[in-house]
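Colleagues,

For the teaching module next term, I've prepared a clean inverse folding example: a structure given as tokens, and then the sequence designed for it. I'd like students to try predicting residues themselves before seeing the answer, so please don't circulate the second half yet.
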């Protein structure tokens, strides 16, 4: 897959990042900014993420969600988004290794999410772009 330059379509995405770590929120935001994406919302934890999702006038096109969070974990967060009929793309992030990422991918698929993949932390810009391009290729 070509990862050279982000398309205009990618640059216009509205993205929400949900993680319980301030550093990760800033790090992933910076990666997205490097890809030309400027419509970025961050939520510190799953509960705040759900509140922000519910109150936002413009729903995100893409959600990047940590799997392990203390208040509402990524699995529960995906379930609740499914209950809200979220149709945007979902990328799951974890520093917990391949088994957790694989389990998360199964849960996302069962939740009928537009699942774009899992990315191990620390995220790499190229891996993020490849996952995002899956979504824009399907539109």
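(Answer key — instructors only)
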């Amino acid at each position: 897959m070509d990862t050279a330059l982000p398309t205009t379509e990618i640059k216009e995405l509205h993205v929400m990042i949900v993680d319980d770590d301030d550093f990760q929120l800033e790090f992933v935001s910076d990666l997205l900014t490097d890809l030309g994406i400027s419509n970025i919302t961050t939520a510190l934890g799953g509960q705040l993420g759900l509140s922000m999702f519910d109150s936002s006038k413009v729903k995100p096109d893409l959600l990047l969600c940590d799997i392990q969070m203390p208040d509402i974990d990524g699995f529960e967060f995906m379930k609740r988004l499914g209950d809200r009929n979220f149709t945007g793309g979902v990328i799951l992030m974890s520093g917990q290794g391949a088994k957790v990422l694989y389990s998360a991918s199964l849960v996302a698929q069962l939740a009928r999410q537009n699942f774009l993949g899992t990315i191990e932390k620390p995220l790499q810009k190229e891996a993020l772009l490849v996952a995002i391009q899956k979504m824009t290729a399907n539109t």
